[in-house]
Design a protein that fits this description.
- The protein has 232 residues and is α/β, with parallel strands linked by helices.
- It has one domain: Alpha-Beta Barrel (TIM Barrel).
- It is 43% helix and 16% strand.
- It has 11 helices and 8 strands.
- The protein has an 8-stranded parallel barrel, surrounded by 6 helices.
- The protein is globular.
- The two termini are 16 Å apart.
- Bound molecules: cytidine-5'-monophosphate (C5P).
Length: 232
């Protein structure tokens, strides 16, 4: 795997999601299922979208004690998602437990990536609420390196951090980057954004794109544009 456009299917129901995906005749975009859809429809939604031929990034961002995360990951590994994730803030021990839980008896497992600092957390909130006073970039790189040392495959990060993560953790360590917007599009609530073409240039491995595709008048054309700009 590598270098793909992941469509964030932030829909409230299975019906809305399948109706959206049905528009992609002959194409099977990589799909991100987040908390909203997963909590609304349950694990069956992963099996169903997978059965339609899509790869799946199951974005549930687990963060709990290691034993609980390990058990939960064991359940998720049975859903056959392609990418799962945890919060790096859960510590090395939790990330190692997640990997163990995710690994099937035959040794295979989905890719496991870590959230570093959410892009909704800024320096001020990090200092005030989390009592972390180091600069954001240093914190993100530290979390990325911790994830790498725990054996994870990559991180979710801002596209603006992709280059530095690759420098710190190596080019094979995956960067999965949301916050993507077309040059002529609206940014919405995303504050730090980048175009698919620029994300390609700085070396993101996967871009996660939601509203520029899902809210477009022609989602298939918007998806094709992302693919053209990002993959070529
Ligand atoms: O609609 P938009 O393109 O902003 O969607 C981006 C997707 O990536 C959403 O599903 C959002 O929850 C997710 N995401 C993000 N920033 C992060 C982590 C995940 O935007 N740091």
């Amino acid at each position: 795997m590598g270098k793909d456009v992941i469509v964030a299917c932030d829909f409230p129901s299975k019906e809305a999601t399948l109706e959206f995906l049905d528009r992609f005749t002959g194409r099977k975009p990589f799909v991100k299922i987040g908390m909203e859809l997963f909590y609304a429809e349950g694990p069956q939604i992963v099996r169903e979208i997978k059965a339609h031929g899509h790869k799946i990034f199951l974005d549930l961002k687990l963060h709990d004690i290691p034993n609980t995360v390990k058990s939960a990951m064991k359940v998720l590994s049975g859903l056959d998602a392609d990418i799962c994730n945890v919060h790096a803030a859960g510590t090395t021990e939790m990330m190692k437990a997640a990997l163990e839980g995710l690994t099937r008896p035959d040794g295979t497992r989905p890719l496991l990536i870590a959230v570093t600092q959410l892009t909704s957390t800024d320096q001020a909130a990090m200092e005030k609420d989390l009592l972390i006073s180091e600069p954001m970039e240093k914190v993100v790189m530290h979390y990325a390196l911790t994830a790498k040392n725990a054996g994870l495959d990559g991180v979710v990060c801002s596209p603006l951090e992709s280059e530095a993560v690759h420098k710190t953790c190596g080019k094979d360590f995956l960067t999965v980057t949301p916050g993507i917007r077309f040059a002529d599009g609206e940014t919405g609530d995303q504050k730090r954004v980048m175009t698919p073409a620029k994300a390609k240039e700085i070396g993101s491995d996967y871009i996660v794109v939601g509203r520029p595709i899902t809210r477009s008048e022609d989602p298939v054309a918007a998806y094709e544009r992302c693919v053209r700009e990002f993959i070529g």
